[in-house]
Amino acid sequence: MLSWVEKYRPRSLKDVAGHEKVKEKLKTWIESYLKGENPKPILLVGPPGCGKTTLAYALANDYGFEVIELNASDKRNSSAIKKVVGHAATSSSIFGKKFLIVLDEVDGISGKEDAGGVSELIKIIKKAKNPIILTANDAYATSIRSLLPYVEIIQLNPVHTNSIYKVLKKIAQKEGLDVDDKTLKMIAQHSAGDLRSAINDLEALALSGDLSYETVQKLPDRKREANIFDALRVILKTTHYGIATTALMNVDETPDVIIEWIAENVPKEYEKAEEVARAFEYLSKADRYLGRVMKRQNYGFWKYATTLMTAGVALSKDEKYRKWTPYSYPKIFRLLTKTKAEREILNKILKKIGEKTHTSSKRARFDLQILEILAKENPYIAADLVDYFEIKEDELKALFGERLSSKLLKILKEKKKKKSEKNKREDKKDKKNEDKKEVKKEIIKKKKEDKKVEEVKGYEISDTEVKKDIKNLETQKQVKKEKEIKEKKKEDKKKENKGKQLTLDAFFK
Ligand SMILES: Nc1ncnc2c1ncn2[C@@H]1O[C@H](COP(=O)(O)OP(=O)(O)O)[C@@H](O)[C@H]1O
Ligand SMILES: [Mg+2]
């Protein structure tokens, strides 16, 4: 089933809400192509969900162009771009088809390694005979700066609340929703110019069956979220200490909220288990500092906490991931807004884990997240942990859903069966051994008696013997010392190799 965002995506410029001047510019631009002129490609710049991609497709549709699209989830290495764009841009239309090339979210081209991607784009732009529309959230992203001289930038504004309201109203009517204007206006306001999220909110609320004004009022503020998404992208993508520590500058949220966002999205970005584990280690250290802020009202600790959760997490990866990752809203907040019964289950589980690991139930949430990853990656270890934390069947189901939990339960059952079989075998062995033990005891008793007799005799231990013992001890000490020195050297070397982390740890010593 199509999401409402797709279902109601305008196919024609006349249905695109707002952006009146932009539409006129686009029309003039494409008409000049049709007249045989060769104007610069257009870079549409604007916040997420304001209609950039929609505008490009609607324009193509209105003028009978076929769209060839590349977006940020494609691997943008230069050969791929050359193949797709290069071909389409210069190929003549065999069946009289006209092609419009859409390069979506070009600011997603990241870092130095992709410079080839940008330079290839520039080459293609220079050669292209077909119209090209590029889109970006941020025209001044360093990654695309070199592109700017070759394009005409058109800036889009966030869609006006009033226009958003009208779009929502139309959808509500078509879907036969029972919702009043006040509520629709509130959804529009919350979206801060992002029509995609406004429509998504409407759909989610309609699905939940609760479209009351009270619920809508509690929707998270998208403007704040947008900033958090930007910060997340910086923290999770960079491997640079300085860049990571400034990521939270524009985020208008407290660290205890931000830490949940980071925790939620670390496993989405990082692909190696060690990286995830390291990142969570830093997060839980950060969490401890946050705890001190609360306990002692000492806001100085905030700085440590934020450095750990930004730079610590950033440096936990070996290298940056060149992929597009859809980040998401922390599940934990959703859990907290669930029913009372569900909240109670969660709290019970967190308390159990907290008791076992001797931590607060907040820290236990990170453990729970790791457990969830493990459950998918390595269910055998996860099953052991479930057993250790004494999480019960119904709790497990509430946590992970039917499929994952039944998998874990099956593993647990098998493990228990094997264990009891092993125990039985060992019991049998033990009985046999017991008889042997009796015999042994006898022998030992006898030896002891013999020794006593000897001790009485042996008062005169020779001088040489004492000296020998001392010498023995000393060589032992020496060997141990040498071993220690060797190990320390090894360790130092290891630390050196781990340079990145060492700098960070040193910061907090
Ligand atoms: N100006 C608009 N008028 C009508 N619908 C819009 C508009 N902008 C966005 N939408 C809706 O939001 C969805 C996402 O828009 P999109 O063009 O993909 O945003 P962007 O590319 O700017 O992130 C569209 O599928 C459409 O349903
Ligand atoms: Mg888009």
| Quaternary organisation | single chain
Straight-line distance between termini: 55 Å
What is the count of helical runs?
21
Topology, number of strands: 5
Q: How would you state the average pLDDT, rounded?
A: 79
Radius of gyration: 33 Å
Bound compounds, each kind once, are: adenosine-5'-diphosphate, magnesium ion
- Which regions contain 5 or more consecutive residues with pLDDT less than 50? 454-463, 498-509
**What about the largest sheet?**
5 strands, parallel
Organism: Methanocaldococcus vulcanius (strain ATCC 700851 / DSM 12094 / M7) (Methanococcus vulcanius)
InterPro entries: AAA+_ATPase, ATPase_AAA_core, P-loop_NTPase, Rep_factor-C_lsu, RFC_lid
Pfam family, one: AAA
Region (Disordered): 419-439, 477-509
Write the layout of secondary structure elements.
Layout: H1 4-7, H2 20-34, E1 42-45, H3 52-62, E2 65-70, H4 78-90, E3 98-103, H5 115-127, E4 132-136, E5 152-155, H6 161-175, H7 181-190, H8 195-208, H9 213-217, H10 222-237, H11 241-245, H12 255-269, H13 273-296, H14 301-314, H15 331-336, H16 340-357, H17 361-377, H18 379-389, H19 393-457, H20 463-497, H21 499-508
Parallel strand pairs: 1-4, 1-5, 2-3, 3-4
This protein binds adenosine-5'-diphosphate and magnesium ion.
